[in-house]
Amino acid sequence: VSTVAERRLYGIAALFDNVEKVLSASRAVVNKGYRSFDTYTPYPVHGLDNVMKLKRSRIGIVTLVVGLIGVVSLVLFTWWTNSVDYPLVIGGKPYFAWPSYVPLMFEMGVLFGAVSTVVALLAIWLGLPRNSHPLHDTEFQKRVSDDRFGICIEAEDALFDEKRTLEFLRSLGAETVDPIYFEAERITLKQRVLDPKFILAIVVVAIVSSGTTYFGLNKMLLIRPWSSLTNQAKVLPESGSEFYPDGFAMRPPVQGTVARSEMPDEFTASDLASAGKFLRNPLLPTPHVMKVGERDFNTYCSPCHGYFADGDSRLQGQFPSPPSLHADSLLRAPDGLYYSVITSGFQGIMPAYSRQIPRDERWAIIWYIRALQKSQNAEATISK
Amino acid sequence: MSVSEQVDATKLRNVPSSYSIAGWILLVLGVLLTAISFAINSKHASFSLIMTLTFVGTIGIGALFWVGVEYVSSAVWSTALRRPFEFVAGVIPFLIVLALPLLLNMRTVFEWTHRMLYKDNPELLLKAPYLNVPFFIIRTIVVFMVWWLFYHLITANSRKQDGTQDQRLTARNVKLSAGFMPIFALTLTVFSIDWLMSLTPNWFSTIFGVYLFAGSALAAMAFATLLIVKLNEKSLFPVKLTPDHYYNLGAFLFAFVNFWAYIGFSQFMLQWYGNLREETLWYIPRMHGSWAIVSIALVLVEFLIPFFLLITKPAKMDPRRLVFVSIWLLVAHAIDVYWMVVPAYDPGHAVFELSEVAFIILSVGILLSVFAYKAKGNNMVPIGDPKLQRGLEFHL
After folding, report:
1. Residue B203: which residues within 8 A CB-CB, separation 6 or more?
2. Which residue of A has its CA nearest to B266?
């Protein structure tokens, strides 16, 4: 139970019944020299800020500075993730492909600017975490948010004097003039952003929200009934099957059979001589075979060997340079040797192509190489 | 206060003769320099004439666009400022004169007129139903005639209202302007494709018309702002303009600086990211050598610097700032036009020779002399407009 002695004066509030009166009264209050006062209207009144001689709001500085911080942090984030921490070529672009991040920079600038503006307004101008105000629940507050216009001169003003301020407001044509009291124990007018209770509340909210997010995404999704996407009736790598008694997921092929695409190659790279001796090109150099050979040569071979098999390719300098296929020893080398090298690679420098190029296409490539060799080593003769 | 008390009748046709003298001197000088540059290098001079046509044309049609926007949106703040826009739009009838030497001489600038190139360039064959000489000439004449028609009808109604004060003329102009808006969008796109994109005939871009519109509206607003603020600060304007009027001019400049950058960047980023030959071929010369410097300068001059020059509220109301930024943005638009046109002439070097000087002097000469001529013969404020009263009392 509070007594009158504990109640402190917040200010003197006057109500006016039309907008013209409150405008002229505000002008008079300013001209009298009062600074700590506010005018309350149920709707925005144009020109009121000029009458009250309010200074320009500086909230824009918060928006600009924090917005720019948002832009800069996005630049640093994209730069660090894409070109330092995990460099990854995307779409053939440089690691730090800044034009594609400009929309993100814009978005982050807007997001940081907007959120910081709202938070700054709440914190600085409304005094968050203050959750009460001397004017709350007063008759004055109810009327100025309904059908009256009000002026409240606050007690902290240097010119404030309870009696004279009251008389002054009455002389301006106010309908009612009332002092506003508040209980100092219950309401504090100080800024309380650093209040330990407020900070504790923020910390608790942060821990709870991040904890539930972590639990939800990392734990909950692996528990029934949310785990239907992670638990599927199939055998994962490195795990056994319960379906077959031997634990295998599939039946192995029948002994002695060969899958169509898995035809083993008779000779490996270590036995080039045998390959050259025993392997023959099974294809005939038809126009179709030559076309396939040309396409595959240009796709798989030309990056290093060059389009004319000269060994002067567009990747020269980035990979070991292969020899020219027009060297004498290679002109004389049998088809089987070429086949074995394409299939298994060569001396750890040229990679194996058995996985990329099907068997028949390897033979087609060899026909195309033969055609290239003929075309590049033709004798200059004059036909008569 | 009634309108007649607020309008100083002695100042209605009060444009100083220095405007028309300077305009005529620059015009004659510009014609002379253009003729000389034609004698030196007719190809280079033809590109310079395309720049002049684009610069003057975009400012003229952009000004008519702002007049139309005022009617369509029933804006009142700009009613007292509408006449300078109408005067600037007065260059529209002369565009065909600028285009004529180019129409007679198309083979020097337009690669696609050479049919022998089609064998090596099958895309041109696909575009040939649109890009052919007779259709090009028809389109150009139709576009300029349509612009001239709307310019003539809208400004004639506006002028007639000075004497009759007939409110029905405003209603008629609202209908005309509403019809003009989609036609403006279509014709400006056709203009941008014909005179700028077809300089690089293999290039594809679906946003280029909008890009030219952004620059057009911005440059027209900048030129009109420059004239309005200059005249008002020397108290030559027949009515008293307030900082609130200035604020709206500055806000539109600020908005269109951003819009121009947004459209320009959208075009760049999509084509850069897609990395398709038919799109990047326009940007590749502009990203290398001295053209790269022009490209970077363009971003700074037409976006970043004016963005910060105009961002605050006091800046948008400050007459000195507005004059400075308006001139700045006109220079930026000239660089923009240079950047759109000249790489087709010399992809390797950002050339700046007599032809470019002729472009600047001729453009300023045409714009200034036409404005001075129109301002001498017409009232600077639409004194019969029913919205004028509210326009003069405009407050933010």
Report:
1. B197, B278, B279, B281, B282
2. A103
